[in-house]
Amino acid sequence: MSSAKWAGKNSGRGPAPGVNSRRRRELSDDQVAEIKDAFSIFDTNGSGRIEAREFKMVLKALGFDPSTDEMYSIMSAVDKEGHGTVSFDDYFKIVKAKILDRDPMEEIAKAFKLFADVNTGTISLKDLRRVADELGEVISDEELAEMIKEADRDNDGVVSEAEFMKIMRKSNLF
Fold first, then answer.
1. Per 3-state DSSP, what percentage of the chain is helix, strand, and coil (rounded to 5)?
2. How many Å from the N-terminal Cα to the C-terminal Cα in the chain?
3. Coil, strand, or helix at residue 5?
4. C-alpha distances in angstroms, 81 versus 49, 76, 86, 94, 163?
5. CB neighbours of 48 closer than 8 A, spacing ≥ 6?
6. Tens of pLDDT along 16-67?
7. What is the dihedral of CA 161, 166, 170, 172, to 10 degrees?
8. Sorted alphabetically, which PANTHER family does this protein's record hold (predicted)?
9. Radius of gyration in angstroms for the set of CA atoms belonging to the chain, rounded to a whole number
10. 20, 63, 94, 134: which is deepest, by most CB within 10 A?
């Protein structure tokens, strides 16, 4: 069982508004597709533009929680005409930059917390079963046990945060 079970180029014009440019790598094809799909859900009339409030909802759906000040700053930069809308091109540049700006270690730590038992601070077979069930994933206990075994370097039957970090870094998902 692979560790994957656990889990664009800079234009040269600088980062999108409200985005720190300290990290750069490329988006995967899946990420590009997810960004496009999220936009198209809200661009119901096919105009190539979405409203500011919809843009904020898309950002939340993609895992971001922009403050009112951040949204104001972004909209001031991209909506020069004051229509309260964002074009697909501006949307894509902003979302791409925000995704590329994420700290992979911080994202892995957040993911660990979603899986881990709050009392033990580890991931057990029971925890994986809970997450799989919550996500509606059909995965056998044998597959889940294999995932634990693959990540459990000290053979204590659970996955610690350090073990989780190691397997996730190795997976190239982050």
1. 55, 5, 40
2. 18
3. helix
4. 13, 9, 11, 18, 51
5. 87, 88
6. 444 443 444 788 898 899 999 999 999 989 999 999 989 998 888 887 888 9
7. 40
8. EF-HAND SUPERFAMILY PROTEIN, MYOSIN LIGHT CHAIN 1, 3
9. 19
10. 94
